UniProtKB/TrEMBL annotation:
PROSITE patterns for this protein: THIOREDOXIN_2 (PS51352)
Protein's recorded name: Protein SCO1/2
Keywords: Copper, Disulfide bond, Metal-binding, Signal
Disulphide linkage map: C82-C86
Species of the source: Geopseudomonas sagittaria
Binding positions for Cu cation per the UniProt entry: C82, C86
Keyword flag Chloroplast: no
GO MF terms held by the record: metal ion binding
The family this protein is said to belong to: Belongs to the SCO1/2 family.
Keyword Ribosomal protein: no
N-terminal signal peptide: 1-27
Residue span, Thioredoxin domain: 42-200
């Protein structure tokens, strides 16, 4: 079965956000572990695996250093053969891209990571991304299965059965290491609001004091002889 068309995905997204109701039986069968209803966000501690992934253009990249960097990031998790929940997650990301405008590709980075790297080749991701008008600043990642699994485990989003992975979008700051997980079909405006909140926090943080990430780095430096 082919992925949903963007227009249909957007319609489903709007319906889910308005009603927050359960998916139809077919969706429940295909995504037994999915819980589309939005749940309270939670603060997240993440660890970036030191592995090499591959973007939609076939280029090797390291998530922490080359994609996240010191940017504010909105990160989703999908697989291209999914015909129910994943297109809605991508449609939400598309709305975030539209609402953030020129911020995407500059201080903000969007990232979609495939949870099915065995089948999701760079070409397949590139074709899928085009359905959601993914522009510069929206990176789609796949890679060797062990590397992707290590990445997902470090982000707290790995599932033994990728078809049952929960719908989750993460928003975080690569500079301060402050991350939040949003479960279910989160209103794009909520995600955008979190992006702006992280940006505002930067304005009130003295240089060299960028939160937990800086504190950990400073502690390591103090321990060195």
């Amino acid at each position: 079965m082919q992925p949903l068309l963007p227009s249909l995905a957007l319609a489903l997204c709007s319906l889910a956000l308005a009603l927050a109701g359960p998916l139809p039986a077919q969706a429940a069968d295909e995504h037994a572990g999915h819980h589309p209803r939005a749940q309270p966000p939670e603060a997240a501690q993440v660890q970036f695996a030191d592995v090499e992934l591959t973007d939609q253009h076939g280029r090797p990249v390291r998530l922490k250093d080359e994609v996240v960097g010191d940017r504010i990031v909105v990160m989703g998790f999908i697989y291209t053969s999914c015909t129910t929940v994943c297109p809605v997650v991508s449609a939400i990301m598309q709305k975030v891209q539209a609402q953030l405008g020129d911020m995407v590709g500059n201080e903000v980075q969007l990232v979609s990571i495939s949870v099915d790297p065995l089948r999701d080749t760079p070409q397949r991701l590139r074709e899928y991304a085009s359905q959601f008008q993914a522009g510069p600043g929206w990176t789609w990642l796949t890679g060797p299965v062990p590397a992707v699994n290590d990445t997902l485990k470090g982000l707290g989003t790995w599932s033994a059965d990728f078809t049952s992975h929960p719908p989750v979008i993460m928003v975080g700051d690569g500079r301060s290491a402050q991350w939040t997980r949003f479960y279910g079909f989160t209103d794009p405006a909520v995600l955008v609001g979190r992006v702006y909140a992280l940006g505002a926090a930067r304005q009130h943080t003295p240089p060299g004091h960028d939160g937990p990430g800086h504190a950990a780095q400073a502690a390591q430096q103090e321990e060195r002889p």
